[in-house]
Amino acid sequence: KRIVVLISGSGSNLQAIIDAIESGRIHGQIVQVISNKADAYGLVRAANAGIPTCHIDHKAYASREEFDEEMRRRIDSQQADLVVLAGFMRILSSAFVEHYSGRMLNIHPSLLPKYKGLHTHQRALAAGDCEHGCTVHFVTEELDGGPLLVQAIVPIIDKDDELSLQKRVHAREHIAYPLAIEWICADRVRFEANDIYLNDELL
Ligand code: GRF
């Protein structure tokens, strides 16, 4: 499958996907990496792997819809089968989300439906939770609200602070995301009319 990855920052999840493709754990190819930030380190990672990159500055567009429309044009010109959000820090318009329905994944650093939005590690600590984690999900209209595909759980330990917890979750993200992407690439999972099918069976 042809994959386009959208990033805004460091791109460690992008790196995990690149590594999984190179080692044959994902049967797909990243045809383009798009960043809304010119200085995103993920662009360097992509270039190092020989993947075409593209910077689309959201500030250069009058509205969210226009920015999204430009991204849609670029993604579709690559004939992408799958759009992967990997630390892409922009909210997407409903037209964009609708266009890629069933073809767009996100990874979120919490055990959804807990802690949608930002500062998830801090919030899990403040709540006194004993576990935390990450979730790969299909993207739908509701922010961090689409159907869940893979979750990885980590324990929260006494001496954890935001950084140590974030690091432990991040390490799991790098396992969970390639796994979910391979399920899609191998046609084991599909999302249709708000339902997830695994190996052709409704979940
Ligand atoms: C990750 O924590 C991911 O869950 C969130 O943004 C972060 C991206 O990290 N959506 P990286 O750029 O992949 O290192």
From TrEMBL:
Residues 1-181 form the Formyl transferase N-terminal domain. GO terms for biological process: 'de novo' IMP biosynthetic process. Its EC number is 2.1.2.2. InterPro entries: Formyl_transf_N, Formyl_transf_N_sf, GART, GART_AS. The record marks 144 as: Raises pKa of active site His. One of its GO terms (molecular function) is phosphoribosylglycinamide formyltransferase activity. Keywords: Purine biosynthesis, Transferase. Pathway: Purine metabolism; IMP biosynthesis via de novo pathway; N(2)-formyl-N(1)-(5-phospho-D-ribosyl)glycinamide from N(1)-(5-phospho-D-ribosyl)glycinamide (10-formyl THF route): step 1/1. N(1)-(5-phospho-beta-D-ribosyl)glycinamide binds at residues 11-13. It catalyses: N(1)-(5-phospho-beta-D-ribosyl)glycinamide + (6R)-10-formyltetrahydrofolate = N(2)-formyl-N(1)-(5-phospho-beta-D-ribosyl)glycinamide + (6S)-5,6,7,8-tetrahydrofolate + H(+). (6R)-10-formyltetrahydrofolate binds at residues 64, 89-92, 106. The keyword Transferase applies. The active site is at residue 108. The keyword Transferase applies. GO terms for cellular component: cytosol. Belongs to the GART family. NCBIfam families: PurN. This is Phosphoribosylglycinamide formyltransferase. It comes from Neptunomonas qingdaonensis. The lineage of its organism: Bacteria, Pseudomonadati, Pseudomonadota, Gammaproteobacteria, Oceanospirillales.
